[in-house]
Amino acid sequence: MKKMTDRILISRRGLIGAACSLAAAPILSPVSLAAVPGDSRFVTIVLRGAMDGLDLVQPYGDLAFRQLRPKLALTPDTGLIDLDGRFGLHPAAAALEPLYRRGELGFVHAVSTPYRDGRSHFDGQDMLEGGGSAQRGSEGGWLNRVLTLTRNPAPAIDVSVTPEMILSGPNPADVWAPRSDIALADDELQMLARLYRNDPAYTKALSDAVGVDAFTDLLRGEAVEDRHGAAAAKLAGTMLRDKYRIASFSINGWDTHVNQKAQFQPAARILSGAITTLRESLGEAAWAQTAVLAVTEFGRSAHENASGGTDHGTGGCAIIAGGAIRGGKVYGRFPGLDDSDLLDGRDLMPTGDVRHIAAAILASQFGISGSALRSSVFPGLQEEARVAFL
């Protein structure tokens, strides 16, 4: 595995050129990775589309919840997995319950980015991944700026046509895809090799691209067809076992305006599968030194709408996992759901900043000072007391 990994480390320009020239199939679920000193590991999962934290971790102990969501609210009698007598886990995320019981997974409720005055997915994701206090207030992604503080940026490789913002920036980071097919037969590949044999750069790019294709086939195996979460998680976990220490990927499908009862379930299962696959791929020793943070651009409205869904909101829920965190609990200061408790009369009031969660984990995992994180990684972030989940 190590030998194969080294063999496919190629330049960003070379691989893009090869991918374009070979008309490779669309690349799915890119995974961004970076190497930093030490054995601690950190994974971010961006939940694109505004994941409904009130559906994933339902405050069934709040009497107002069922009034706000008569069709969506569950109870332990209707399938909700009771967590602590106040909150319950959506049954579609049942695969996460064993991790929660073992203290390897937890939740931080009623959190958000500083994004307040708009409901655009694009602007919300820019703020989430940029890490600043205002729109377009930061250059690149906050996870890329972390690499400056670790003093050991990784060499670059870019298999994706659209690297994610969170790990984009001046520091090089590798980008992989769990699946990229070179849709050419062997004789066609040989013809290309002969045609361009006098072009050393193209010859190398072609050779490396074929190596990537073979490697991703090896990682996927014959039976795996999950193109959303588990495949990315398997690739990330495999890479994190070796030289990499930071990884990031995304899971889409959380924009549930209509018929949320049906739409939420597949996304929740994919997320659950991604986290459990990460644990399996990392193995016990590496998982024990890993922290996972899953976040979304904003929450959804506290009220369900007339279409059986929810609209764009503000406060949401962050998922934390890994052997490096203290799970088994729903953290955060939940404000309640009475009308007077809601933001603008419609949203879960955020009482915490998701950047504080990320900053606390980064400080714990990589020994980065709080002042450096606040000044360089999350501009505008105010100092906050130590979190309880580490």
Automatic annotation (TrEMBL):
It comes from the Bacteria. Keywords: Signal. Residues 1-34 form the signal peptide. The keyword tRNA processing does not apply. PANTHER family: BLL7424 PROTEIN, DUF1501 DOMAIN-CONTAINING PROTEIN. This is DUF1501 domain-containing protein. It comes from Peteryoungia algae. The lineage of its organism: Bacteria, Pseudomonadati, Pseudomonadota, Alphaproteobacteria, Hyphomicrobiales.
